[in-house]
From TrEMBL:
InterPro entries: AAA+_ATPase, ABC_AA/LPS_Transport, ABC_transporter-like_ATP-bd, ABC_transporter-like_CS, P-loop_NTPase. Keywords: ATP-binding, Nucleotide-binding, Transport. This is ABC transporter ATP-binding protein. PROSITE patterns: ABC_TRANSPORTER_1, ABC_TRANSPORTER_2. Residues 2-249 form the ABC transporter domain. Signal peptide: none annotated. The keyword Transport applies. One of its GO terms (molecular function) is ATP binding. It comes from the Bacteria.
Length: 261
């Protein structure tokens, strides 16, 4: 589904992503791990068109998407959440989810799929769809609250609902369990499984090694921008280079995590 070859991103003298190649198959939950500053978020930023890669190619469902503008890549079916939560804190939870469709209604997306003819029909549909997704992420009772009043963990769920409103083929999650307690991590794990069951392929950046190994079909490890491993979880976590670069430095809760950037 996704085939990346030799992508590279420089910031001045720093190579944040260095000749990374990887493939993600349709229906997979694919984990991306590595120490702080390894280039994981930069990788997502390249994939979603926020940064143009300095080298390399990205094929999504057989079409090149490297270098395309973010809205074009989103339109091809890739949606994401952000490491630093991006919600309109004073708007309602429901309105934040609806915003996932901002700029996409009237562009014919739903109109084409569902034969919605008027703006009113479209609004009603986005409303219902947003409520359905809030239900999916477990926030049905919160829809009228100000987004900023929710716990950190719940704000991340709102972001996921917002990312799903466009019915993406692939969802990129940047540290979805940041700031969550053990119980919330369990719930997030179940939610990601459900999202995959509903037909969306997932790439997950995560510091919680226990969660990633239990959840992901395959895991790639970045270290200083370089991919040092890419395999099934059992193989990756017993890889000596990975243990030295990363796993030796985190505990099962992912203590090296920093949610600030
Ligand atoms: N816009 C930018 N300009 C300059 N340097 C950047 C920029 N974005 C990222 N970097 C640098 O690139 C490197 C990779 O950063 P990135 O945020 O991708 O790491 P990460 O693996 O997501 O880390 P974390 O686990 O802390 O979120 C870091 O050294 C970072 O300082
Ligand atoms: Mg990051």
């Amino acid at each position: 589904m996704l085939k990346i070859e030799g992508i590279m991103k420089r910031f001045g003298g720093l190579i944040a992503v260095d000749q990374v190649s990887l493939q993600v198959n349709q229906g997979e939950i694919f984990g991306l791990i590595g120490p702080n500053g390894a280039g994981k978020t930069t990788f997502f930023n390249i994939l979603t068109g926020i940064y143009k890669p300095d080298a390399g190619t990205i094929m999504f469902e057989g079409e090149p998407i490297h270098g395309l503008k973010p809205y074009r890549i989103a339109k091809s079916g890739i949606s994401r959440t952000f490491q630093n939560i991006r919600l309109l804190k004073e708007e309602s939870v429901l309105d934040n989810v609806k915003l996932g469709m901002f700029g996409k209604t009237s562009s014919g997306l739903w109109a084409a799929i569902l034969g919605l003819r008027t703006a009113k029909e479209e609004e009603a549909f986005v409303h219902a769809e947003s409520q359905r997704l809030l239900e999916l992420v477990g926030l049905a009772d919160f829809e009228q609250l100000e987004a900023g009043s929710l716990s950190y963990g719940n704000q991340r769920r709102v972001e996921i609902a917002r990312a799903l409103v466009v019915r993406p083929k692939m969802l990129l999650l940047d540290e979805p369990t940041a700031g969550m307690n053990a119980e919330e991590v369990q719930e997030m794990t179940a939610l990601i499984r459900k999202i995959r069951q509903n037909g969306t392929t997932v790439i997950l950046i995560e510091h919680n090694v226990t969660m990633v190994t239990g959840l992901c079909d395959r895991i790639a490890v970045l270290d200083h921008g370089v991919k040092i491993a890419d395999d099934i979880p059992e193989v990756v976590i017993s890889n000596q280079e990975v243990i030295e670069a990363y796993i030796g430095k985190v505990d099962v809760e992912g203590v090296t995590h920093s949610a600030a950037n």
